[in-house]
Amino acid sequence: MPSLETILAWSIPELRERYLERRRPVPKGLLEALEVDTRLGAHQLAKQIRGRYRSNRAEGQRLHTLLRFEIELWSQGFSLVAGVDEAGMAPLAGPVVAGAVILPKNYKLRGLNDSKKILDHETREALAAQIKQDAICWSFGFAEVEEIDRINIYHAGLLAMQRALQGLSCLPDFVLVDARKIPHCSTPQRGLIRGDALSASIAAASIIAKTTRDAHMLEMDALYAGYGFASHKGYPTPEHCRALKELGALPIHRRSFGRVREVLGLDPVQAELFEATPEEPAVESAAAQAY
Fold first, then answer.
1. pLDDT band at residue 290, thresholds of 50, 70 and 90?
2. 172 and 189 in contact (C-beta within 8 Å)?
3. Residue range(s) occupied by CATH 3.30.420.10 in the chain
4. Which residues face 85 on adjacent strands?
5. Which of 9, 138, 242, 287 is 20 to 30 Å from 232 by CA-CA measure?
6. What is the third-level CATH fold of 69-290?
């Protein structure tokens, strides 16, 4: 590593590129030297680097907090903790997709969060790629439109999660699920309300589910021109509702959802796949009733 004297001979733009943009380790004494440096921008660079330190500490604490349920389970002897979540309950078209992920112990990935809070598509894709690379194992499961219409969206979401869990290449010894519990699951499990914002494993599963479903809807956009699936992914945006009325319903539209029924004049009767439990009322989800 160059000496402090050598580093201080570099220009401020060079220092900024190396220690702020590229996030290289800052040598001892450099910040203090920059704070008394008379060059234009030196003080501001030192302030920005210290701000990065504070941000890193805050992010580290957030990620540690995001592991609190996993840490508790690891301490109880559960080594393989799976997180499960779904995406696509509210859209008018396309499947509901679930993700399942088992993360390594004490896994921390900068930016890991509930997929709904990550608005940038490229960031979600980058996180998904990193999760897939780092996870002990991961999987996804689909519940198709025909299944949504037959058993209702609530139970189709459970079916997708069941399939995602069954698709894991290694058997978990505990399962954390967003908001509910997976039927016919012999592995101990716990449903966490807003679990995708509380558990790293569920957050990772939500990212897998969201990016997998988005990729599928991009394929549907190429197959069905004019509906805008690449932009709205099947959700009931004004653009989508307009296309639905003007162009009609497609095979991938959910005929059990009100806005699609309105176009087709259908009122399907749905059968249930899973029996209700005290935690799982046997009713259509709010999303299905609304749309």
1. very low
2. no
3. 69-290
4. 99
5. 138
6. Nucleotidyltransferase; domain 5 (3.30.420)
